[in-house]
Write the structure tokens for this entry.
Amino acid sequence: MEAVCRKATSGDVEALYALIEGYARKGIMLPRSRETLNRQIDTFVVAEVENRIVGCGSLCKLGGELVEIRSLGISEGYKGLGIGSRLVDKLVDEAKEQGIPKVMALTYEVAFFRKNGFEVVDKEIFPEKVWTDCVNCAKQHCCDEIAVLKMLN
């Protein structure tokens, strides 16, 4: 089973919405509206297996030196096959192309990110993230996600 990672297109919005919504219902990913996905489609990458979207992720610029990996998810039945790592590689390559030296994420899957070259850091080192998103989050004062960071050369 070969997964192809590519930039998302507007034709992928419905599949992205369904994948992200499944995670959002479990409280482990922020929901994204179809309108938001349409507006931010150029920040997303998808993984396809036999023309079916089975994974996604996006990059959100948080300043000139920092991007965040967001909305990283894999469909049930496709986890553990290396698709998530391929998506992260594609997003890291995008950050390199943009000349951005730091890639961060907030996650519950620390082992996955460590395996992909990230290290655990204190989330307070990311004021860009805190003031951009966390200020509007319901979990703002009881956030249980772990911050991870990868420095690019």
About this structure: Residues 5 and 130 are 30 Å apart (CA to CA). Helices lie at 13-25, 34-39, 83-97, 110-115, 127-132. The mean pLDDT is 89.
